[in-house]
Every structure is written in structure tokens, then in C-alpha cells.
Amino acid sequence: MLKTTGLKYLYKHGKTIEFPDIEIETGQRLLISGFSGCGKTTLLSLIAGALRLQEGSINFNDTDYSDMSSMSLDKFRADHIGYIFQTLNLIPFLNVSENIALGIKFSKNRKSKVSDMHQEIERLISSLGLEKEILNTAIDNLSVGQQQRVAVARALLGKPDLILADEPTSALDNDTTKKFLDEVMNTFDPSHQAIIMVSHDLSIAPYFDTVLDFNKHNAHSII
What is the Cα–Cα distance from 103 to 126, expressed in whole angstroms? Predict the structure, then answer.
């Protein structure tokens, strides 16, 4: 499904990070762990096509990123990738249902997989431990944990091939983290999806079949 080779990224302040190569198959659950500033979020952004390649290659679903324009990458991401942002990126003036629906607003491919939008949104929030009564609730009236589940539902709507999750448990305590990951993994469909999650917390490793620890493997920095 996904293969990265020789990725290297130069930041504006002069720091360069070299990333280990990654190969992901359908159904795989990869956890990338490491210290703050080691490049975990940058790697996700490169895989999502949100950051342009500087050096190295990314091939996803037989598509080579180096051959694509920024506009093509944006469309490809909308069609194939569900992104759970560290900052959630929920829209405060939209309610829960409207925020989730944004997940497929720019993708005909993912829209075609949703025959009944309201029913599918209800199914997703239920699988993530939320009550359907919150669908018309403003985002600002939800707890952080509830907001994170809304962000996950938005990323999963329309069954994207790859789910990228950036520190989704960072604001949760241990018990809530376990419940949250149980719900995410129960909603995840290994028959056609893969998931890459980044976290500083290696205690969540048992939820994944592959763990890449940047602290050991070393995506290393060059100043």
C-alpha cells in the first residue's frame, strides 16, 4: 500500500531530518514513537502530501508523489487518506454532524461509499462511544475526549485507505486512552485500511502490530 524511501527534510531554521524507510500493507497498524522534535508530525505531513517532498520518494497505492502537483496531492489525500490532527482542526461554528461531514466534502471517491450520510455518521459516533444526541451540539460544548472522537469519525467517514493519527491521545489520561484506542481499533477495518499513529507514549504499543521507535531506529537530525 505505502512505501517511503530515502526521505529527508530540511527545515527553514537549518535542521535536517533523515527518516527510516517505511513499508505498510493493507491491514497493518503502525505506531511511530519518539521524542518531541524528532520529526514524527513532519513524516505524517509528507505521507499525507501536505508537505512537498524535498528528497526521497513516497509511493502510495501505486502512485508516485514526485510526479504530482500540489493540487493533485490535495485531491489524492482527500480521496484516500483520513487525517486525525494533533490540534483536531474542528470548526467551532459547526455542530458535530457538520464537522464529521467535512471529512468527505472534497472527495467524490469517499462520498460514493456513503449511501446515507446521517446513518453513517450515527454509526461512526456510536462505534466511538458517543451518543447520537450530540450530533446537533456545538463543538465548543464538548469535552476534549468527545472532540477527539468527533475528529476520528471525520477521518473515518467514507472509508479512506490510510488513516494518519497525530498524537490523538496526548490530552487523555490512561483509562480514557485505553477506551479511546479500543474504540478506534474496533472501528478500523483491516480488510482495506491501514493506520499510522504517532505518539510519544510507548505504553500504547500493544494496540499495534508494528512499532517504529525513532529514539532507537533514529530518524536522525543533522544541524
Answer: 17
Q: Is 77 exposed, middle or buried (0-12, 13-18, 19+ CB in 10 A)?
A: buried
Question: Residue 140: how many CB atoms within 10 A of its CB?
Answer: 9
pLDDT of residue 30: 96
pLDDT at 95 (0 to 100)? 95
pLDDT band at 217 (very low <50, low <70, confident <90, very high): low
Interval 112-133: pLDDT, tens: 999 999 999 999 999 888 999 9
User: 101: which 3 cell numbers?
Assistant: 461531514
**Reduced 3-state DSSP string for 93-112:** CCEHHHHHHHHHCCCHHHHC
The answer to whether 58 touches 7, Cβ cutoff 8 Å, is yes
Count of residues in the chain: 223
Q: Tell whether the model's pLDDT for residue 109 goes beyond 90.
A: yes
Q: At what angle do helices 144-156 and 117-127 cross, to 10 degrees?
A: 130
Architecture of the CATH domain 2-222: 3-Layer(aba) Sandwich (3.40)
Give residue limits of the domains in the chain. Answer: 2-222
